[in-house]
Amino acid sequence: MTDTPTTTAPATTATLAANTPRRFYRGGERILAFRGLDVPADFDGYRPEDWVGSTAHLFAEGGGGVTTLDTGVPLPDALRSDPHGWLGAAHVARFGEEPHLLTKLLDSGERLPVHSHPSREFAAAHLDCDHGKTEAWIVLVAEPGATVWVGFRDELSPEALADLVDAQDERLLAALNPIEVSVGDAVLVPAGQPHAIGEGVLILELQEPTDFSVMLEHERFGLELDHAFLGLDRALALRSVDHGPVTAERLASLRRRWADVEGHGPALPDEASAFFSAEVVRPVTGDVTVPAAYAAVVVVDGSGTLTSRHGTREVRAGDVLLVPHAAGDVTVSGDVTLIRCLPPTA
Ligand SMILES: [Zn+2]
Q1: Which residues neighbour 78 within 8 Å (Cβ) at sequence distance 6 or greater?
Q2: CA distances from 244 to 19, 163, 198, 235, 250 (A)
Q3: Which residue, 137, 153, 145, is CA-closest to 249?
Q4: Which of 6, 9, 208, 302 lies 20 to 30 Å (CA to CA) from residue 183?
Q5: DSSP 8-class letter at 38
Q6: pLDDT of res. 6
Q7: Distance 266 CA to ligand 1 centre (A)
Q8: Residue 207 in 3-state DSSP?
Q9: Segment 156-213, tens digit of pLDDT
Q10: What UniProt keywords are attached to this protein's entry (predicted)?
Q11: Which pLDDT does position 153 carry in this prediction?
């Protein structure tokens, strides 16, 4: 760990406290339960997201979201003070001093609105940003029958999409592909695809590091139109939305069972790797050693140890860690399952 707030990356790992900005939709109790935390007396029920290793800000709703390390240093400052130690030379050479990854825990205490996120190309052209927002969901907890929705089943004309958005009724959700999910599922959501998350799931979410969302459904959540359409003209904002169709075959290609991995393997479809990757580490037949990398690590089951060149630390389910590249190769031992969330490959 660092001795002073401005020195180098920690030699092993930083434990991250919960970072749960207030949002417009309900949730958060499953995050507290997962992390082994009590529900605070002043819990307001609107803390559905825990932003992990975040250098990104909320687009609206107060602009919070950036991670502060336990040294009191905001993560962006820590990265700037030692980019090579945190991110590794190859990452810095390719991407600069930004992780290019936002990781969250998300607990849906109610169904989220139907929304979509712009692509890199759209964000570069209209939002003055190099990142769009492809995202992926790794299901950690799911109530029976829990459902998510991805992509329009049938192709919609621009006029039909605009009509659905005008109506602000249940037809918008009904036009999407429903996917019943259980613990162990993973779903990739390419930028542009409209989607929603039903009530009763805790997911580990990987995203490009922006908070750009086009809120196709906004009225019932009380969102201002400026917020809903990213400050853009509505017709322009809707041009960022994929009109479908997302076929059953395409849908299957976006899914994977992360719980099937034994040893060490990918949690997400290969298509995700242009944006980020997630790896399951479960040392069932012997220790697993993973190469040095900047990673947000979420321990999802059991307990064990992480050993790097600087020592050994114990971990258990609910721990959320940020591992700097400078920690070197890390060996995972024990009856433990963890998921490493990684930036795009340099
Ligand atoms: Zn989303």
Answers
A1: 9, 69, 71, 86
A2: 35, 16, 21, 17, 11
A3: 153
A4: 208
A5: P
A6: 41
A7: 21
A8: strand
A9: 999 999 999 999 999 999 999 999 999 999 999 999 999 999 999 999 999 998 889 9
A10: Metal-binding, Zinc
A11: 97
CATH T-level fold of 14-257? Jelly Rolls (2.60.120)
Please give the distance, rounded to the nearest whole angstrom, from the Cα atom of residue 195 to the centre of ligand 1: 7
How far is Cα 151 from Cα 133, in angstroms, rounded to an integer? 15
Cα–ligand 1 centroid distance for 228 (angstroms): 13
Strand partners, 204: 105, 138
**CATH numeric code, 261-342:** 2.60.120.10
Tell me the pLDDT band of 7, cut-offs 50, 70 and 90: very low
Instruction: Tell me the CA distances in angstroms from 89 to 12, 68, 82, 98, 304, one per residue in order.
Output: 17, 23, 11, 12, 29
Instruction: Give me ligand 1 centre to Cα 150, in Å.
Output: 10
- Asked whether this chain's domains 14-257 and 261-342 adopt the same fold, the reply is yes
Structure tokens at 248: 């059953």
The rounded Å distance from CA 234 to ligand 1 centre is 18
Task: Specify the pLDDT at position 4.
Answer: 41
Give the residue extent of every domain in the chain.
14-257, 261-342
